[in-house]
Here is the input.
Amino acid sequence: MSDGATQGHDAFTELGPAVRSALSERGFSTPTEPQRKAIPTLTQGRDALVVAPTGTGKTETAMLPVLDALASETDDRFGIGALYITPLRALNRDMRERLEWWGETLGLEVDVRHGDTTQYQRGKQADDPPDVLVTTPETLQAMLTGSKLRVALEDVDHVVVDEVHELAAAKRGAQLTVGLERLREVAGEFQRVGLSATVGDPDAVGQFLTGGRPCSIMEVDIGSRLDVRVVRPQVTDRDERLSSELVTDAETASHVRFIDDLIDDHDSVLVFVNTRQTAEALGSRFKELGTNLGVHHGSLSKEARIEVEDQFKAGELDALLCTSSMELGIDVGRVDHVVQYGSPRQVSRLVQRVGRAGHRRDQTSAGTVVTTHADDTLEAMAIARQARAGEVEPAGIHDGSLDTVANQIAGLVMDTGEISAMTAYTVLTRAYPFRDLDEAQFKSVVRELARNNVVWLDEDRDSLEKRRGTWQYFYQNLSMIPDEATYDVEDVASGKQVGTLDERFVVNFATPGEVFVQRGEMWRITTIDEEEETVTVSPIEDPAGEVPSWTGSEIPVPKAVAGEVGELRRVAGTQLQDGAPVDSVASHVAARYDADAETVADGLSQLDGHEAPIPDENTVLVEFQGREVVVNACQGHKINETLGRVLSALLGQRAGSSVAMDVDPYRVELEVPRGITAGDVIEVLEETDPDHLAALVELSLKNADALKFKLAQVATKFGSLKRWRGRGSTEFGRDRLLAALEDTPMYEEALREVRHEDLAIAATAELLADLQSGRVALETVSEHTPIGTGGRSSGRELLSPENADASVIQTVKERIQSDRVILLCLHCKEWDRRQQVGRVRDQPECPECGSTRIAALNPWADEVVAAVRADDKEDEQEKMTERAYRSGSLVQTHGKQAVTALAARGVGPHNAARIINRLREDEDEFYRDILRQEREYARTQSFWD
Here is the structure.
């Protein structure tokens, strides 16, 4: 055994007698792996990053050396000796419970401070500071500006930052890095310790923590201890029976049944989902099934979250259905299995989530990924293999965010009342994310703040000073989390808070009488109070509801994961095209991946009968049928999003018309105007100069809501706008804002942030260069393939070039007239016909009985036809029938005009009636109303279950 190994094995001997005695009392006889690796280094006072799974004793790893140092101090210390900074208030509660025992045993005071701490408690902390203070990044910002607290902070010798990987990928973290440099101005040098889940770039995260100074990295390998199975449940007869009970299809019923069986087979299970919508939808299904499970996500009230956390920890619940909030170190006791519903999208998420299971005493962490479609299955298989191999994505640090610079300039001025601009610049650029901030950018931000009355700029003295607006700005912007209204949801009967809804959901969906799911239960909206930002609701038993829309976009799948999916397609697809049986190929693949042959076969289903070239990691396949184009590219979300925007912008410019776009990690789907051919798409890919890509993307973003929405948020952080509310901001208003701020640092930052979060310009430019050089093959086919039609559609955005209105209206008209509808007689119920809208008579009538009460239905609505004809209807069929009769009434009264409106996307009988009732005499205005409704549907599509 090496000296290092011996030292690690005896890590607790590095600690003083008081701490060793407390360890024995607490039952800690043997250090965990992170404790063995890190404690010897930390006791020497060195800066360090500890990378290990949640639940492996990371808190004690960092804090035992800190508590030992504080307990052994001989000098009287007035102030705070150590700060424990954590990104979630929920973690504060856990930290306090765990650290208070150590404090009491060692004679040290441990306290908590965050936004909800009472004024009395804050005053007490300032007058008699604790030895250890657990706090949040935002509260540290406020503490640095208090005169008494600044004195208390002078004694800080240790700062522990928990979940530093989470902060490194967010502006909150960029803000914290400057906050730590401001603390250094007060306390001098102090030890910095970061606690992180597994990341792909630990060295960069370490530099992020220390401001580029030396940082020891202690990393625990989790990949070798992961036991993950990928499963696509097969539908059974039981699932067919269960589907009606759960008011869902048999396939979803099979997922619920399979997960329920896993919960039965284990003592304590975390079931992770990727979105809060899925948590609510799945939660309601488990409730119907009677599963002993609680729902946990960030939009539930604090009380509701704490209640299910405590119930799970006490063994009163068998499982928790949760979102990413449970990836962090909230203590819910022992977890013996983790279920991930749907692909986790990223390796880091799988590692963090499954890493919560079975971690005591270095056990294997066991988990099951339940997949829902072919892409999902191959993606989960790739992620599971990469997780075992330790191939984790980098954290994605926000470098040079200018609104954070603005925020921290105000903080520096608040700290002392006056500071030289050069000193402020020096402090800012010591922080790792701002190491490359140039003076010109800094000065442009300062001038903007001065124009907005946030700080006073004395150019003669090169001085920044506090003014009346500084205090108000600073405390309104303690957080870098964008300010959007959230509505409290309150039970009208009890007055208790159920949870929250984001403003965009309330504005676009919520009206009295509507039904939605929250906390796994159904609620009907009673009233909406916009001034108080409150929605009152009453519980109902009706299982047909809408799932709330939550803030947040889909987790982006990285290129490395999408590329491995392409490789899987290539290897398996080549064998299948050479005549190998599916079962044989699936068994061969299953031997190398964490999935059974049946699941693999399901993942390869898109390749069955795929005769065209296979889109893989080195092949892009463009398929063209009618006006629908699919660019199959295994490049991941961000590259495909960038590629899609460029194609949409350039093709739309050629046609003078809108191009609808839908993107996932494996394909870009476009609906192009008439006149655009496959040759145009190929020409854009082969002739667009990669060096011009950034400018083209910026041009396309000017017509996108994403940039305008981001700009409004950034302008708020610069003090240019009062607290921005989406409700009061019209499309026209946002366009004017974009025009007014285009040459400012606010525009620069909004553009940088959209690029950072959603796009990959450099990687997409590289892809174009590879396509043009032949390093990546470009193939075409004039029909849709099974792979091309296998996307998971996540909503569309219309990118409209200027002055394209007439062309857009004509395109909409032509599309709707060529679409097909089912015409169904509601009188005799015997006659139905599929017909193009353009060929429908002005007043349709049944050739069998002569009735004019004809329903116009979507061409795939066979279940509605069956429901109308059924004698003994179930609840769901009753709703379909009611909708058909509303359609029939419209057609009977308004003839072909009603058929046309009903054929549009997302336009049901209710909205069709509204369009018709506007009594438009101008045909273009009629189609313009339809287009407006279609765009509204596209924007709010993610709100629907």
Summary: The radius of gyration is 30 Å. The chain is about 45% helix and 15% strand. The first helix runs from residue 3 to 9. The chain has six domains: 3-221, 224-388, 402-476, 486-540, 613-799, 815-943.
